[in-house]
Amino acid sequence: MFFPPFLIPIVVGVVTQFLKIFFKSNRVTDPDHTRFDLLPQYGGMPSAHTAFATSLATLVSLTEGIYSNSFAIAICLMIFILDDALRLRVFLGRFGVAIRRLVRLLPEDDQKTMPHIEGRIGHRVSEVIVGAFVGIFLTIVLWIFDQRL
């Protein structure tokens, strides 16, 4: 290998996060914000967390095989991350929506002092599926490229 294998999932995660620019472009309505301002936000298409986790599991399967202990650990980590993206963060997003509704009941001066709370920090199933496909595809491409160097 030309470069350390741990870099492949990191590259896949970063590339997937930047892909969100193209999917979220129609959601920018504030003239003071650009598509790049949406990059650090949670949620959206595709899921970078899922791409990272599937990339890690794919890389371990390619390098050590599916019967290795490392692959078992990578799969468990991937399941944990997918569960977080699909259930826990969706649940927390509902709290964000409720808090924003409560903030709107405050006097206007007090509303301005409150931080913005995102209402959607989880993922839809389609966003996780696309994130998984991106993670697997980019990992295989990068791994093949690295093998040829």
What's the total number of strands? 0
Strand content is under 5%
Summarize the helix and strand pattern as letters: HHHHH
Provide the residue-averaged pLDDT. 81
Query: How far is the N terminus from the C terminus?
Result: 7 Å
Helix content: 55-70%
Figure out the total of helices: 5
Broad shape:
elongated
Using only C-alpha atoms, the radius of gyration works out to 19 Å
Structural class: mainly alpha
| Main beta-sheet annotation | none
Query: Unreliable stretches, pLDDT < 50, 5 or more residues?
Result: none
What's the structural domain tally?
1
Could you characterize what this model shows?
The protein starts with 6 loop residues before the first helix and ends with a helix. The longest helix has 36 residues, at 69-104. The chain is 67% helix and 0% strand. Helix 1 packs antiparallel against helix 2 (48-64) and helix 2 packs across helix 5. It has helices at residues 7-23, 48-64, 69-104, 108-113, 125-148. The chain is an all-alpha fold. It has one domain. It contains 5 helices and no strands.
